[in-house]
Every structure is written in structure tokens, then in C-alpha cells.
Design brief:
Shape of chain A: globular
Radius of gyration of chain A: 16 Å
Number of helices of chain A: 5
Strand content of chain B: 15-25%
Number of strands of chain B: 28
CATH superfamily of chain A: Class I glutamine amidotransferase (GATase) domain
Strand order of the largest sheet of chain B: 8-10-7-11-9-12-13
Mean pLDDT of chain A: 96
Helix content of chain B: 25-40%
Distance between the termini of chain A: 7 Å
CATH topology of chain A: Rossmann fold
Oligomer: heterodimer
Largest sheet of chain B: 7 strands, mixed
Chain lengths: 227, 730
């Protein structure tokens, strides 16, 4: 399986993603934001970080990068595109997934483990994951998902919510919502479910020595689903 | 502008220093030259009050590749890997503008590390604030934490450990010390020594603006009521540009075109160019019209004194300019050839085709003032006699809860949750433990780092306090299973012109030196911050020690959380019942006098090394050093972290229960072992003449003392975790 990780100026989880993808069997290539062409890929990842310093709206500058036109075309033709954290913010800015990401509710950066409930398993990202709840890691300042009522209705009708913040038993309640996200949304699909944006970093949870190992479950499953 | 004695005094120079400048130059300096002298001769850059004493610190060792004198220290961690590290203060700016002050402190120390070719792999910090009741404290704390996070998070370097304290002596002068560790191949370390004639001098990074002019001079003076007016001397940070600068520099460093490289930190272009020339025994000629400027009509004086951030000066091999420029173009950074090395041994600056400065380098460096300031020796205070009646009415659990909720003991999760501590995917011990630990990427090795200070002990008796901080750093590394290698120090003191403050400095340095010599834990880098003083009121002496150690196989790392019910808990090291200057004495008995706990270097070394032996033999399940709040506080933290309880039995000592549990005697650790290993552990401890007490057995979730007093761990956890969150949300 071939993957590509895009490096934008200010990306800082690009190496971590490269390490994770390779660990689970992907042949990964790092792609520079100013390139025009995507290498042949089964998966394209927009990694976390602070593209362009997030000095304008998070992700907005990166969404206009040269490479992004190719990424958008790839996604529109059914290619698998995953945006993690800042990558999610970039996806939102391209319009590939609906909604926006606001500043965290308590106006502070949060770095900690969270639990997320998988909402839908009829897609290539989560199909065949045994667990319903994963323990993942978040590290962000702007992960507070928001969209209009109409958008929310459409998202629900199309079953586009990928994961929700919850407790270890999968209970989705306000108290388990770390950043104020609407409906505890932690990750969302496009309509066709080939594009996934999510705040948690599975690449930081791939080893028992790290914060946990549920990221391994995610990647192992992902590569199997793509085969 | 005409330069005279008054103008020099306005620049922070003393009258006799101005006379010396005129004598060295054999003429009156022009304003640009005066600015350069004032920047190089201030306390922050010249170490004029401290140099004499710093020379006495032990700086050499088998593992030391580079000691003090470079951008940072370097130690050997085997297999051609080396760790570059340093701690630095950003105290003065952080009080004036907490967000930018703290942010640029973090940015500055990271630059020091990657200037040497190392990729930063971990950040730490030591931050100290006034009393929680002081009306400025909350905003300063919030601003500093946001600033540290804002910069470090954006850079993508994990913040893995730190220390926060509150004391009214910091009401008018907070301390913000930032430390960075970087990883480099031993044969790819870059230095700041220029070499060769007619080599191009390159400016890269951000453009130069008018921010931070006289920042270093501001940091070399006490505060008064007009301090808010100094806001323009605080630099503004741009972590995004620094991230680009990091990547671009490392890309250039992968080749062989760099002769010397130096970041523009305090005193900007002035100190960076002069340091490179001085170390290389060369001259440097710069055309200031070529310096990329952010604002129009900047004068030579402003360009030379600007402390705009995210800039570097590089001496390149001839003919490599185009190749280097390509890399900086790729990262959208300014790149300009601004001058060349010369044989003149002078700094020669040109602007609009006129020579605007012409100063022999040695006058700025070797001939800079050095003072043997007067200092007063501190007396060891008399021991207090604790009356048993004073202890009688105290209930251990109530006292314990108070201590766990004390601002200097309570959980700092509110702070470190705002720092990205997991980026780079190698953090195997997060903040909140004895040390932060990161793996050496792609290897079995891990590096542990801790930052410590004990201002109260240093204030009570500086020599003992100085020793104690080094020992605490040693213990914190050993507690996670790391072999201590070397330290960096950040020496925060009041005015060196005050004999008592100067005495505190001299004696703390003496204590640090003695301990680091004995423990073979040399000082490889550091920084001095004097004038942490508002009017006549100075801070408590606060030397912060950043220690670094190596874990050969990261699977053998130890954490402090209790692991398993029925395991045994021992205390290593003897408890004498030293209560003076303990958190208990100061906060519960309200007794602020007396000597700090004695430091016995033999025991420190022996106890620590013996614990490492036990760890090497896989006999230790968890470990934690005993510090503020004594044995019971240490044990409670291990319970809270491990979500387990313990049945404690006080050993049959003659000392009172309260003294046993809350004393702050040094050289002690709490360890958890499996029952079946008891004999093996006891044998090793006996053989090495290490005293130990059997303290108790781990249970599900309650703390029992002598079978009668009990409290649930949840209750203790609430006491420990709620203070800071409550304080910040009020």
C-alpha cells in the first residue's frame, strides 16, 4: 500500500505520521506542499502541526497550497484522504468535509488522552475495528467542531459523523467533551466517506511505551481495509 | 548625537566603564559604538559580576564533549549520538509582557540548541511566581504558560517536564527559565568559532525590526515603578518562522558548507558577530545596508541593537552561497550576504558607504569589565527545637491534605496539559513524574531530564541549598532509572551590587560546585540572571539545575505510580527528622527560620548508585525521590498516580510520627518491590551500607497509618488536583 504525507511549512506531525504508516506496512512518501503532482497513492495524509503558523484561520493558508488542488482532485475521484488535527482544519477549509473548527471552549491548548466512540463502521477507515471505543490522544487549540443546523441535519442524515468524544464505556456526554465540539464530534467524513478529518492523533498511540496502543488498532485495520 | 558620559550612563554603563572605553579606543566612541559597548558590557552578556566565580565550577568529565562557552553544552550518549542542552532565563521580559517574554525565552533556548546542529527533542521549564494572593500572579501565570505553550507547541517539540513554585519574594520579579535538549550526531556538531579570511558572513531568518532594542540592558537592571514603560524592549516571538529556520538550518547543516554559526539572541547582531570573530581571533566587516530590515529608515544603531527573534549569522565556505540560498528560498526565509571575515581583528561596520563603527574585538570581549564584588558570608541558622506539644494537636491526615494542596506541591496538570508533551512520538514519561523521558528516536536508548530548584533552602543557607539542588536533580534522574550525566544551571539572583545577594550567589555556586564535583555531574552550560530585584527587594536565591541522564534500554525505565497490590514499599536513606525549612514547618507550624536539611554527599551518591543497581537487576517496580513534604507526601503521590493505597507502619524510631512523615532529610527514595524479592533487595542494600526502612504494603485504594488512621486515595487525589484548577478558574 502506498501512502503520501504532505509537508506544509509549519507541519510538525509529518515525521510521526511517516513513522506510524511505515510501522504498519505502508510505503510512505513525504510530499512537499509546493509540488504540483501527487505520487501514486492509496492514502493521502494531511498531518498535524501549525501550517503557516495558523496565523490566519487555522488551515486556511495551507488549503490554498499548490499540492492541495491535486489532493482535492484525488479526493473527488474517490481517493482516500485523511486529515489529522491541523490536517482536519485544512480539510474543513477546502470544503472537502463540512463545518468549521473553532477555538477550544476554555480557550486553552489541550494535550491529553481521550476516548472516542466509533459511530460508523461501514467505511474503509473503521470497518472491522473490533472495539467500539478507542483511546486516542489530542493536542490542539482549535478543535471545537461547529456547523449550521442545516449542515448538522445533512451530516446526520448521511451518517457522516466518524467519531464522538465519550468515556471509556462509550457514553457520549458533555462532561467527556474536551473542547466544546458540537455533539461531541471528534471526526467527520465527507458524504462518500473516503475523506476523514479528525482531531485525535492515532500516530501518537502506536506503542505500549507511549500514551497507549489504540492507534495501532486503527492503522492495522486501515491497511487491511485498503488491500 | 554627541556621545558623552551622561549618554553612556543612560545606556547603563558606569562612569569608569565609559572612561575605560574611551581609553581602549583612544577616542570618544560614536553612538553606534557606544550602543555596541553597552550591549556587550552589560551584566547579561559580559557576566562581569559572575565570571570570577563561575570559573570554579567543575565542567569536565568523560562524557563532556563541550562545556560552557558555546551556544550550549554537549554530552556523549554513545553510538555517535550526543545531547546538546542548556537552560536560560527570560525573567525580566516575562514580568513586563508574560506571553511574549516566556515565548521568546523558549524560542531563544531552542535556537541555541539547533545552532549547534541538534534537532530539539525536548523542552523543560522552571517558572516561579509571587504569592497566589498577589493580584498580578494569576495573569502572569496564565500569560507565561500560554507563551511557553504557544511557542513550543507550534515548533512541534514536546515539553516533557518542569517546575512551578509560588513565593512572595517573586511578587515583583517572576522567573521564567527555559531548557531545551537536542539530539545530534557526534561528528556533526557545529560551533560558533569563525575561521578563514574573506569568508562570506550570511544573515538568515526573520527581518530585523525595532523590537527588543536594549533588551539585554533591561535584563541587567533592577525594576522600579516605571517598569511598564520598558515594554518595547521585549521581543516578539514568531514560532512559525523559527520552525522554518530550524528545518532550513538542519538542511544546510547536512552538507559541509558551514564554517561557523551563531544565533542572534541577546544583543542581536552585535553579540553574534563579535562572538564569532572573537572565538576565531578574526575581524568581521559588515555592510549594514545589506541587513534585511522590517522597517524603513533603521539606523546602524538600531540594526546592531535590535533583538528581533528568529535570526542566525553564518560564516560559509566560499562559493557555497548559491547552494545555501536555495535552501533558505525553499523555506521562504531571508538570506543575505552581509559581510566577510577579515584579518583586522576588528568589527568594522559600514552604512551608506560610510564607516560607522571600528572597534577592536578584544576591547569588547577580553577587556570587558570583570568585578570581584564584595559579598557577605551567610551564617548557618540555629536549629529550632520543635516542642512535642506543638505536634500533639495535629492530625496527620489533615496535615497531609493541606500539604498535598499546597501550591508548591499540588498537581500542575493545569499547566502541562497546555503543553504538547507527546509530539515527536517518543515521550515515554510525561510531565508529573520525577523526570521527563524521551526515547532517542529509532534506538533503544532514552534520555531523562529534570529541572529543579529549592529557593527556600538556598535562602536559609546558600552553600547547603546549592548542594541540595544538584542532589535533587541527581535523585530525580535516578528515580526513573537514568544514569545522571551532566547539568546546566540557571542562576537567578538579586542585585550583585548588594553584598548579601552577592554572597548568596557566591555560596550557592560553591555548593553547586561541590556537589557536582563529588557526584561527577559536571556543569556543561548555563546562564546567570542578576538584578531580579524591585527597588531594594530581591528574590530568594533561586539557582535552577537542569539535569540530564541516560537510560540505556528504555524498557527499563521506572515510573512513580504504585503498580501492584501486596507489593512492599521501602524507604531508602535515613530519616533523622529534619523539620526546619520543611514545607511542614513553614506552612503548618508557621516557622520560617532554621537551617535547611543537611546534605551528605557520600550518602547521596551511595544511595543513588545503589538504587541504580537495584533497577539494573530488575528489582524495582516503582520509585520516587523524597522531597517537599517528606515521606508521606511522596508516598501519597505514588498512590494517587497508581490509583492504589498503602498500609503504612511507622518504623520504631525515637522520633515523633509527624517528624518521621514530614521531615525533609535528603538522600531518600521510596521504592516498591515484589515481596519475593525482599531478601535480594535487602542484601544489596546491606552490602552497600544503605539504610532502609520497611514502610508498608500496597493495598487497593486506602492509605492506612499504623492500622488506625485512614483516608481514601480519591480524597487525597482531590486535595492534590483541585487547588491549581480552582485557583485559575476563580
Amino acid at each position: 500500500m502506498k501512502s503520501s504525507v504532505i509537508t506544509f511549512p509549519g507541519s510538525n506531525c509529518d515525521r510521526d505520521m511517516d513513522v506510524a504508516l511505515k510501522k504498519f506496512g505502508f510505503k510512505n512518501k513525504m510530499v512537499w506542499h509546493a509540488d504540483a503532482e501527487l505520487p501514486k497513492s492509496d492514502l493521502v495524509v494531511l498531518p498535524g502541526g501549525f501550517s503557516y503558523g495558523d496565523y490566519l484561520r487555522c488551515g486556511s493558508m495551507a488549503s490554498k497550497s499548490k499540492i492541495m488542488q491535486s489532493v482535492i482532485n484525488f479526493a473527488n475521484s474517490g481517493g482516500m484522504v485523511m486529515g489529522i488535527c491541523n490536517g482536519f482544519q485544512i480539510l474543513v477549509e477546502t470544503g472537502l468535509v463540512p463545518g468549521v473548527l473553532l477555538r477550544n471552549k476554555y480557550l486553552e491548548f489541550i494535550c491529553k488522552n481521550v476516548f472516542v466512540k466509533i459511530n460508523d463502521k461501514k467505511n474503509k477507515y473503521f470497518k472491522n475495528v473490533d472495539n467500539d471505543v478507542l483511546e486516542l490522544h489530542i493536542a490542539h487549540n482549535e478543535g471545537n467542531y461547529f456547523c449550521t443546523d442545516d449542515q448538522l441535519k445533512e451530516i446526520k442524515d448521511n451518517n457522516q459523523i466518524a467519531i464522538n468524544y465519550c468515556d471509556e464505556n462509550g457514553k457520549i456526554e458533555d462532561q467527556f467533551n474536551p473542547n466544546g465540539s458540537l455533539k461531541n464530534i471528534a471526526g467527520i467524513f465527507n458524504k462518500e466517506k473516503n475523506v476523514l478529518g479528525m482531531m485525535p492523533h492515532p500516530e501518537r498511540m502506536i506503542d505500549t511505551s507511549l500514551s497507549g496502543e489504540d492507534g495501532s488498532l486503527f492503522f492495522k485495520n486501515l491497511i487491511n481495509n485498503l488491500k | 548625537m554627541i556621545v558623552n558620559e551622561q549618554v553612556a550612563v543612560d545606556h547603563g554603563l558606569k562612569k569608569d566603564e565609559y572612561a575605560k572605553i574611551c581609553e581602549l579606543l583612544k577616542r570618544t566612541p560614536n553612538i553606534t559604538e557606544l550602543g555596541i559597548f553597552s550591549a556587550m558590557w552589560n551584566e547579561h552578556c559580559s557576566y562581569k559580576s559572575s565570571r570570577l566565580h563561575l570559573k570554579k565550577l567543575p565542567t569536565k568529565g568523560k562524557k563532556v564533549i563541550q562545556g560552557p562557552g558555546e551556544n550550549a553544552g554537549v554530552i556523549d550518549i554513545e553510538d555517535n549520538d550526543a545531547i546538546v542542552f542548556k537552560i536560560e532565563s527570560h525573567n525580566h521580559p516575562s514580568f513586563i509582557e508574560p506571553y511574549q517574554g516566556a515565548a521568546t525565552g523558549v524560542g531563544g533556548i531552542m535556537r541555541d540548541v539547533f545552532t549547534m546542529g541538534a534537532r530539539p527533542i525536548a523542552n523543560l521549564n522552571s517558572i516561579h511566581f509571587g504569592s497566589p494572593q498577589n493580584k498580578k500572579t494569576k495573569n502572569l501565570l496564565r500569560g507565561v504558560v500560554h507563551g511557553i505553550g504557544g511557542y513550543g507547541n507550534c515548533m512541534g517539540v514536546p515539553t516533557i517536564a518542569g517546575q512551578t513554585s509560588f513565593d512572595s519574594s517573586y511578587n515583583g520579579n517572576i522567573l521564567v527559565n527555559a531548557m531545551t535538549l537536542g539530539l545530534v550526531k557526534k561528528d556533526k556538531i557545529f560551533y560558533s568559532k569563525a575561521a578563514g579570511l574573506n569568508k562570506p558572513v550570511i544573515y538568515v531568518g526573520s527581518k530585523t525590526g525595532r523590537d527588543g532594542i536594549h533588551g539585554a540592558s533591561m535584563a541587567s537592571a533592577s525594576f522600579d515603578e516605571k517598569i511598564e514603560e520598558k515594554k518595547p524592549t521585549v521581543q516578539v516571538g514568531d514560532p512559525f518562522t523559527e520552525k522554518l529556520l530550524l528545518e532550513a538550518c538542519l538542511e544546510l547543516m547536512a552538507g559541509d558548507s558551514i564554517i561557523a554559526i551563531q544565533d542572534m539572541g541577546a544583543a542581536g547582531l552585535t553579540s553574534s558577530s563579535i562572538e564569532m570573530a572573537s572565538k576565531g581571533n578574526l575581524g568581521i566587516e559588515i555592510n549594514l545596508n545589506k541587513v534585511p530590515c522590517r522597517e524603513t529608515k533603521m539606523t546602524p544603531y538600531e540594526i546592531m541593537l535590535s533583538e528581533s527573534q528568529e535570526r542566525m549569522l553564518i560564516v560559509l565556505e566560499n562559493g557555497k552561497e548559491e547552494q545555501a540560498k536555495k535552501i533558505f528560498d525553499k523555506w521562504n526565509l531571508d538570506f543575505a550576504v552581509i559581510g566577510k571575515t577579515t584579518k583586522s581583528k576588528k568589527i568594522e561596520l559600514y552604512f551608506d558607504e560610510e564607516k560607522v563603527a571600528d572597534i577592536p574585538v578584544n576591547t569588547l570581549v577580553e577587556n570587558s569589565p570583570m568585578y570581584d564584588r564584595k559579598w557577605k558570608k551567610a551564617k548557618l541558622p540555629k536549629k529550632n527545637k520543635i516542642k512535642k506539644e506543638d505536634l500533639k494537636h495535629l492530625k496527620i491526615i489533615d496535615v497531609l491534605k493541606k500539604i498535598l494542596a499546597n501550591p508548591n506541591v499540588c498537581s500542575k496538570e493545569w499547566i502541562w496539559q497546555q503543553y504538547d508533551h507527546t509530539v515527536m512520538g517518543d515521550t515515554i514519561q510525561k510531565p508529573g513524574g520525577d523526570s521527563g523521558v524521551v526515547r532517542v528516536h529509532g534506538t533503544d536508548k532514552a534520555v531523562a531530564a529534570s529541572v529543579d530548584s529549592s529557593a527556600v533552602y538556598c535562602w536559609a543557607h546558600p552553600i547547603t541549598g546549592g548542594k541540595q539542588v544538584v542532589c535533587e536533580s541527581f535523585r530525580n534522574l535516578i528515580s526513573v532509572g537514568a544514569k545522571p550525566i551532566a547539568i546546566t544551571n540557571c542562576l537567578n539572583f538579586g542585585s550583585p551590587e548588594n553584598e548579601e545577594n552577592m554572597g548568596e550567589f557566591v555560596e550557592c555556586v560553591q555548593g553547586i560546585g561541590e556537589a557536582s564535583e563529588y557526584l561527577k555531574f559536571p556543569v556543561v552550560s548555563g546562564n546567570v540572571s542578576f538584578y531580579n530585584q524591585t527597588k531594594e527587594e530581591g528574590i530568594k536565591p533561586t539557582p535552577a539545575i537542569g539535569g540530564v541522564g541516560l537510560i540505556k534500554n528504555y524498557q527499563n525505565m521506572i515510573t512513580m505510580d504504585f503498580k501492584e497490590v501486596d507489593n512492599l514499599v521501602l524507604v531508602i536513606g535515613k530519616t533523622e527528622g529534619h523539620i526546619d525549612q520543611s514545607l511542614f514547618a513553614r506552612n503548618i507550624l508557621d516557622e520560617k527560620n532554621g537551617p535547611p536539611p543537611e546534605v551528605n554527599l557520600f550518602n547521596e551518591k551511595n544511595n543513588g548508585e545503589t538504587l541504580l543497581k537495584l533497577i539494573d537487576n530488575n528489582l524495582i517496580k516503582s520509585a520516587h525521590d523524597v522531597s517537599l513534604g517528606g515521606i508521606i507526601t511522596a508516598v501519597s503521590k505514588m498512590c494517587i498516580k497508581g490509583k492504589k493505597g498503602i498500609n503504612i507502619k511507622k518504623p520504631k524510631y525515637l522520633i515523633h510520627e509527624i517528624e518521621y512523615f514530614f521531615a525533609e532529610d535528603q538522600g531518600r527514595y521510596i521504592i516498591e518491590i515484589n515481596k519475593k524479592d525482599f531478601k535480594k533487595v535487602a542484601d544489596i542494600l546491606h552490602k552497600n551500607a544503605v539504610h532502609f526502612d520497611e514502610l508498608g504494603t500496597i493495598n487497593e485504594n486506602e492509605l492506612y497509618i499504623n492500622d488506625k488512621t485512614k483516608v481514601t486515595i480519591d480524597e487525597l487525589s482531590t486535595s492534590n488536583k483541585s487547588w491549581l484548577t480552582d485557583y485559575m478558574s476563580k
